[in-house]
Design a protein that fits this description.
Rossmann fold, 20 helices, 47% helix, Arc Repressor Mutant, subunit A, elongated, 450 residues, 5-stranded parallel β-sheet, single chain, alpha/beta
Length: 450
């Protein structure tokens, strides 16, 4: 049996002790494979919580020991036991794990700070900011069973979607930003690194790419989030995990299957009376490191609680929405205070919104404002508005529905994403009809028409 003192020239003294404790230092030439296996399993357990540099040094020392013992493929055995070299895993560059905060974290204050951070730089409702704060913490929970997509969308450009995405990138676990990704790159990246995927211009990414949409659709439930592909020189079948948190920013709406798997945050164009702070990615990312570290620590401390959680879910949510919100509600419930109430309110508010917005909707707002200005009145019936819209020959309204003119129902649907609904109104001569009040349209005019 070789003495542990023989290891002194190869590794520092404290590592000698670790190798002795694992019994790897006692491996002799032509030792039984069972003895080697037991020693490597023991070493794997002992170094579980060591830092990446220490693991790399231990890996090198273990390979030397096995090579001296006559093992033909020492690196392969060590990599299987300890995992591949840390250089190859998500410990460097954009995949670097956040170092947890050294002390226990008050989750309520953490969630408050994250929600406030979003509203420092973009215009968001309270419900949207709360939802994004909970979703941010969710990205650090590797043991979650469900990972809802986060969809950030707007009816037009310059509503803050990309800025919102950048803030998320400063806060979430292992962020990867992309505006273009292939199917193969998507599932290989997710399987290898389990990042948080931030997709900008998702309306373009998913256009005419059914396979990419199918892969993202499969990533909701951890138990079924796999795609089967042939890989390697011999093209052997392999299961690739496609489970990771994903956030998508776009103009308009997602394909229906993706939307059904997403928590929707709708953004509006900022008014001058709604000031926000100037955002610089480099300085803000450094500033928010404390929040990232606290998020990592809080999640690590509450992992078991979250795994067993059965949070109360509002009956106002349909079955899929309940699934989507359950991991976020579990986070809120784990901390208590007002956060369970806030989380439930956010779930109901965001789940009940149906948004199908496009640039044509803004054109419609332009034309409606023109009609109200021409009539110089505070209210107009739906019949009058549709009649005048369909008489505009240079606009799409005369033939916007497969060659047929716009109807009152279609007008209502087009305005609904802006929070505008027709009302029963009284007109001159006590005539009662459904229509629109100027005051209900004014907010949308101010936000989307320059």
């Amino acid at each position: 049996m070789r003495s542990d003192m023989n290891l002194a020239p190869a590794v520092p003294d404290d590592l000698n002790t670790l190798l002795v404790d694992s019994a790897l230092a006692a491996i002799e030439k032509d030792a039984p494979l069972a003895q080697i296996e037991a020693a490597l399993r023991s070493l794997s357990h002992l170094i579980m919580k060591t830092d990446p540099l220490r693991q790399a040094i231990i890996r090198e020392a273990a390979i030397r020991l096995l090579r001296d013992a006559g093992v033909r493929s020492p690196a392969a055995l060590v990599d299987v036991a300890l995992g591949p070299k840390r250089d190859d895993l998500a410990s460097d560059g954009p995949f670097r794990d956040t170092e947890p905060w050294p002390e226990p974290v008050d989750g309520r204050m953490l969630l408050d700070e994250i929600a406030t951070t979003f509203r420092r730089f973009v215009v968001l409702s309270g419900a949207a900011a709360d939802a994004q704060a909970l979703w941010t913490l969710h990205t650090y929970n590797a043991e979650a069973h469900v990972s809802p997509n986060l969809c950030i969308r707007s009816p037009e450009k310059r509503c803050g979607k990309t800025r919102n995405l950048e803030i998320l990138g400063c806060l979430v676990h292992r962020p990867i930003h992309t505006a273009n990704i292939s199917v193969a790159a998507l599932y290989r990246t997710i399987d290898r690194y389990r990042p948080t995927l931030l997709i900008d211009e998702a309306d373009r990414v998913f256009t005419r790419n059914d396979e990419l949409r199918t892969v993202v659709n499969a990533g909701l439930y951890a138990s079924t989030a796999f795609v089967l592909r042939c890989a390697g020189d011999r093209q052997q079948p392999k299961l690739f995990s496609v489970w990771c948190p994903k956030v998508m920013a776009l103009i308009g709406g997602l394909p229906s299957t993706l939307e059904d798997r997403s928590i929707i945050v709708s953004m509006r164009r900022r008014l001058r009376a709604e000031p926000v702070e100037t955002f610089r990615y480099d300085t803000i990312s450094e500033e928010l490191e404390t929040l990232r570290r606290k998020a990592a620590r809080w999640t690590a401390d509450h992992m078991n609680t979250l795994a067993r959680a059965e949070p109360a879910v509002s009956e106002q949510l349909h079955d899929r929405a309940q699934d989507l919100w359950r991991p976020l509600l579990a986070i809120a419930e784990a901390e208590g205070g007002r956060w369970p109430e806030r989380a439930c309110a956010a779930a109901v508010a965001l789940s009940n919104r149906e948004v199908e917005e496009s640039s044509s909707a803004v054109q419609l707002l332009h034309d409606l404002r023109t009609i109200f200005q021409q009539h110089q009145v505070e209210r107009l019936s739906s019949t009058t508005l549709v009649s005048e819209l369909t008489e505009m020959e240079d606009r799409p309204w005369p033939e916007c529905m497969n060659g047929k003119p716009l109807t009152k129902v279609q007008l209502a649907r087009a305005l609904s994403p802006f929070g505008i609904q027709p009302k029963v109104l009284r007109f001159v001569g006590n005539q009662v009809s459904r229509g629109y009040r100027l005051e209900d349209l004014t907010d949308a005019f101010r936000r989307y028409i320059l």
